[in-house]
TrEMBL record:
<dbReference type="InterPro" id="IPR034206">
    <property type="entry name" value="RBM45_RRM2"/>
</dbReference>
<dbReference type="InterPro" id="IPR052462">
    <property type="entry name" value="SLIRP/GR-RBP-like"/>
</dbReference>
<dbReference type="Pfam" id="PF00076">
    <property type="entry name" value="RRM_1"/>
</dbReference>
<dbReference type="GO" id="GO:0003723">
    <property type="term" value="F:RNA binding"/>
</dbReference>
<dbReference type="InterPro" id="IPR012677">
    <property type="entry name" value="Nucleotide-bd_a/b_plait_sf"/>
</dbReference>
<feature type="domain" description="RRM">
    <location>
        <begin position="21"/>
        <end position="95"/>
    </location>
</feature>
<dbReference type="InterPro" id="IPR035979">
    <property type="entry name" value="RBD_domain_sf"/>
</dbReference>
<protein>
    <submittedName>
        <fullName>RBM45 protein</fullName>
    </submittedName>
</protein>
<dbReference type="InterPro" id="IPR000504">
    <property type="entry name" value="RRM_dom"/>
</dbReference>
<dbReference type="InterPro" id="IPR034207">
    <property type="entry name" value="RBM45_RRM3"/>
</dbReference>
<keyword id="KW-0694">RNA-binding</keyword>
Length: 224
């Protein structure tokens, strides 16, 4: 397994400790840490669970962390847990929880339809979950456009974006008049595309050449 990381990510140990074993999830506000542990213990050995609470009232904000002992366990939890939890890999602890919470809410609420559908409503216990009212700042889709000053090699670009689960295809296109690179990437879910854009926009590939990653309209109604 090859793990791509930006230079700002620190040492490999830091990446393994912070980015690959800790997941961030959306949960009903009545969940306790024991409830959270009970829901996620089937995927591996849990080091700790924590719930983000309002500093003034002490009430749950409906978000929490689960830290596993192994990266493979965290990956399994993200892949196999109920999609209502919106599980993603957590940012390193040196990024403030408020910043992560803002990023998480804004990224996930952009996928919501304009109607009144709420996450978790497939299960009765989740139907009272409050929808965040963040404004939709950009239209997301399953498809991404990748632009570079240098031309792409199909196999290498596919391998890079395949690090994010759900890659469906990678189409590298060449402009005979310029030496720049352009590709269209598509994932099976908008969540995967959001995560790929978040991690790979500005990523240096090859070193010294930054990728520009933006969403492309894919014709879907964002209902998922």
């Amino acid at each position: 397994v090859f793990i791509a990381q930006s230079r700002a990510s620190g040492s490999h140990r830091d990446v393994e400790d912070e980015e690959l074993t800790r997941i961030f999830v959306m949960i009903p506000k009545f969940y306790t840490e024991e409830d959270l542990r009970e829901k996620f213990k089937m995927y591996g050995d849990i080091e700790y669970c924590s719930i983000i609470k309002n500093k003034t009232t002490g009430e749950s904000k409906g978000l929490g962390y689960v830290r596993y002992l192994k990266p493979s366990q965290a990956a399994r939890a993200i892949e196999e847990c109920d999609r209502g939890y919106r599980a993603i890999l957590a940012e390193p602890k040196n990024k403030s929880s408020e910043s992560l919470e803002h990023d998480y809410y804004s990224n996930n609420t952009r996928q919501e339809p304009r109607g009144n559908t709420l996450p978790f409503c497939g299960q009765p216990e989740f139907c009272s979950f409050e929808k965040n009212e963040s404004r939709i700042q950009e239209s997301v889709s399953k498809r991404l456009s990748v632009v570079s000053r240098l031309p792409f090699i199909q196999e290498q670009l596919f391998a890079l974006f395949d690090l994010v689960p759900g890659l469906e295809y990678c189409d590298v296109q060449r402009d005979p008049h310029t030496n720049s690179g352009y590709a269209v990437i598509q994932y099976s879910t908008a969540a995967s595309a959001i995560y790929a854009k978040y991690k790979l926009h500005g990523f240096e590939y090859p070193p010294g050449n930054r990728l520009t990653v933006i969403f492309l309209e894919d014709g879907s109604d964002s209902s998922e």
